[in-house]
Amino acid sequence: MAEILAAVADVVSAVGVETVLHTGTVDEIDDDTTVFVVIPHEYYWFNPRPAPSSLRRTIAFGVEHPGTDTFAVAARAASVMGARVEISQESVTVLNGAGLTADHFQLGYSQRWDQWGGIQRERPVDLAYMGAADPERLQVLARMAPGLADIQTTDLLIPPIEQRLRPRPDFLMGAAKWRFLASTKILLNLHRQAKTALELVRALEAMCNGAVLITEPSTDMAGLEPGVHLVTAPREAIPRRIHELLQAPGLLVQISADAYTFCVEHLNMTASAERLVAIADDLIDGARLGPNASNLHMPDWPEVRPPYVPELAHWIPEPYPLPVPGATLPEPMREAVRALAIHRRQRMAIDDMYVGTPSGAEVDAVVVTHAGSGPLAATLASLAAQSVSVSVQIAGIGIPMQEQITSASTYLSCSLETSVGSARNELIERSSAPFVLILEAGDQLLGDSLATMVKQLHEHSAIDVIYPMAAYGEATLVNLFHPEPARLERFGYLTRGYLVRRDALTRIGTFSEDPVLDAYVDHDFWLRAAGAAERVTHLHRIGTFLWPTDLSKMMPADPAEVRSLFSSNLPDPLDGYEGFAVLTSAAFLLQNDERLRAYAEAMEAEPGAALIIDASQMDPTVAAAELTALVERCQLTDEKITLIGVVGKLHPSQRLRVNRASHAVYGERPAEADPTDPSSVPTFTRDALPALRTFAASWRREQLDRR
After folding, report:
1. Is the pLDDT of residue 275 over 50?
2. pTM assigned to the model
């Protein structure tokens, strides 16, 4: 959103008014004579209790559209500000109808956004999409997946629904985003929730950089004409229309040029900028008359704060939903599960076997079929169509050998008691290709995704695991995001459909053979792979169709035991850091930005340093709020600090690591040390760790004896 305000500031400056771009709160720079322009719903995230005096001189710059939750949040936040402008005429109409005066701001061409210049060039990306992972649009994309599979170069940037202050691999900002659009032929746009208005910001950014926008039929189009400046099509016809456009390069060039010319010549922001200045003058005059009591009512926090938490999205597609922490099954069911688990932990039994001639293939496709999986024939047909040589390894759990599988290199008919992990490990042991593809019956590869993955692994020896996005039936997309340990501890958002180096399995570990984790065997794998996330690559395209597994046909698991097994398998997130600066309270750092800067400077000479916030003994709600605020503050001040927040119960190795560092810092720090002085901030190198371990171990023994 800062990019929108920056473009507006450029035009306001051009009409002769001084502007300043500020990252932070208006209260930090308020001099009683300045008018502020903010994006209302985002501003309230950072400053939920702004001073009433500054609110009277604040203009809400609305960019959301009726029909979405964020528009309702933005409208409520804007209601207590001095004035309101909206980039959508529909939004102005809705606000005026609700008794809130609002003016229309005609957003238009920005030289700041233009990384193209209107000169035709090669565009290597055929199709791009940029939109957060909300359920409705993911379902639309899942249904489009087969129709988009054979497009040569697709780049789908789908970040999680959360506050984003920095770029991510799936979220570009500023010049990087505009350069990406300048290298893109077609940008796909889909409406969110019940809205119908054109996403004008996305449309303008595309047109300023020559990307042709294809969108659902839209209202409130700012004078843009379908077929001339952009392309519209119903959802079900969009894949076909994209193919038609890619086969008509001359038409793409014409639409691109016409849209760019229209933006430059007709979507001029000068008149709106002058109106914005006039509104600002009125607010300054009105503020001098004294406070208006009706403007001092503050919206309630829960109704204003957006429903997301930075870094950990509340909603993520979950084909394998994690059991609720702390939940347990009723005692009779738990006993039944335990008895079944003990029985299934016995050695797997192979009832029948078919082993073909070794093929020397590049890829071993490890496919497990069981009562909850889909048609095996569809998976075999998909693998047979690949341009890469594939050896098919199949294990049927409780399923007799089938005649149609003779194309497989191996088929094991396993007893019903066999766990999914055991079957996979047995197939991997019996095969030899350098790369292993993990699928289940019913899963299918789309387009040339397997060849793309193999090529990447050949070209980049530092990559161990690679995976594309996947359509989970027609319900949603999964495998959307990179493996992040903190996110994986809360959400099961990554599943099968990945390609892994065979030799990497010795580092990451093979699959859990515990039947309790049958429904979570891939989640368990990803938790371990996330310990070396830099060796994992994500393809921003839909490369697989995954059969929606019927979890009700799988063995029920004791939620408490599943969580316990996850914890015991997790890598220690503190491994790999050679130095530590440790605090027990995030609130300490939040009191003053200078403290953050002091720690950043003290840690600069220690490349492996991490700032560990030990909040494991705090109330989880308070801890989460403080850590969230600290992350935001670090991002706002642009401090290069590696933050690790420790919340909740820890497994022993993690707990011991934190205790060692924490006690060494606080036990040895001079009482008169100034925490804002970088020279007094203790850090530790690898050479100091042996003594630190000895000291911490003796301290722990003393604490235990004291108890």
Report:
1. yes
2. 0.77
